[in-house]
Design brief:
- With about 170 residues, the chain is mainly alpha-helical.
- It is about 65% helix and about 0% strand.
- The chain contains seven helices and no strands.
- The longest helix is centred in the middle third of the chain and has 26 residues, at about 75-100.
Amino acid sequence: MPEQLPIAGPMLGAALTVVGLIVSWVLWRRRGAASGLRGVAWSLLPLAVGLMGLMTILWRLVADLVGFFVSLAFNPIVWAGVAVAGLAVVLWVVSGVMRARGVGVRKGSGSGSAAAEQGGGPAAGITSADGGTAGAAGAPGKGQGKQAAKPKQGGDDDFGDIEDLLRKHGIE
């Protein structure tokens, strides 16, 4: 591919802007003023790029990308690089799944709180409203037995069956 533009950058930008303005006019007629104005805004960008001297940089970028993909199709060494990059992505994803499931993670690796590592679970060390420590699996802490022994005052009898079922399953 040639490194230089076939025509000057501002000329190419102007040509692309004219084509964009024609498309914008069609959009204006079919979809309304908002779509047309948005098309005009996008159409002015190639002219701005050409006037700033960035068209040559964009031309080289496109030429390099096309050259890369052409060499990708015919070069086995490039395919080996793509395979190694794919392997790296697969290993990264597998390690994330393993870490999420706790497979292959050491206890002292710093991936949890000190209370969870000591076997207390995530709720260890959390104090309840009455000052007692809540257990990990819904076991009653200090003061929870007192609340369960007190009869509810002002409660409906409709909820009595539900409360009995919850107590039966250890949920209070």
